[in-house]
Design brief:
Helices cover 53% and strands 0% of the residues. With 199 residues, it is mainly α. The chain folds into 2 domains: 67 residues, Serine Threonine Protein Phosphatase 5, Tetratricopeptide repeat (Alpha Horseshoe); 131 residues, Serine Threonine Protein Phosphatase 5, Tetratricopeptide repeat (Alpha Horseshoe). The radius of gyration is 18 Å and the shape is elongated. The N and C termini lie far apart (50 Å). The relative contact order is 0.09. The model has no long low-confidence stretch (mean pLDDT 96).
């Protein structure tokens, strides 16, 4: 934060007076740092909710991607930060963007990590349930293959299944989510998948 100047510094520190003054400069709103991060990205990382709101209301691009191809929504989801996610969604940021170097979504990232409350919020915001990333995995598949079978990943899987995620989208090798869950001994997840017609 010490290296930041201008609008990035105001966003990082939550200095709303300076932020509002500088945000009238459209080019500054979406200027990027060395990591490709805009002031909105920085405010998201640092959980500056009032700054997030002020930046978006001033016209900041909520779909901007940093050098990792993360938008603000994905940053909050990966950080397991439901409150910041609520702030972003409440100010019009989209849960539907394709993000990350894996051409995934914020929902896939949150499901992978078992961030169940973020998963719930993203589903409610219309995140695409069955998007397949460039590895060949959906959010549902990642909750199993990259999860640990514990309670948070179980809750993640339940939210996805209850929302209507397709449990029968196999990976690139043709292996189903149910087969992956069985091979890992995730019996609770197996039962959940079977109850939704997984094969």
């Amino acid at each position: 934060m010490a290296a930041y100047t201008g609008l990035h510094k105001a966003a990082a520190s939550g200095d709303l007076a300076t932020l509002r003054k500088l945000a009238s400069n459209r080019s500054a709103l979406d200027a990027t740092d060395g990591n490709g991060r805009t002031p909105l990205h920085v405010a998201t990382f640092l959980k500056r909710h009032e700054a997030i709101t002020a930046l978006i209301r001033a016209g900041a691009n909520t779909a901007a991607l940093d050098n990792q191809k993360y938008d603000a929504i994905t940053i909050a989801a990966v950080a397991d930060d439901p409150q910041t996610l609520k702030t972003l969604l409440g100010n019009g940021a989209s849960a539907k963007l394709v993000t990350s170097i894996y051409d995934g979504t914020a929902l896939i990232a949150a499901a992978h990590l078992g961030h169940e409350e973020c998963v719930r919020l993203l589903i409610s915001a219309g995140a695409p349930l069955d998007h397949v990333n460039n590895i060949g995995w959906t959010a549902l598949m990642e909750s199993i293959v990259l999860g640990n079978g514990g309670k948070r990943h179980q809750a993640t899987l339940k939210y996805l299944l209850d929302a209507g995620a397709n449990p029968n989208i196999a990976d690139k090798q043709g292996v189903s989510a149910l087969t992956h869950a069985r091979s890992r001994g995730y019996q609770t997840m197996v039962k959940m998948l079977e109850s939704k017609g997984a094969k």
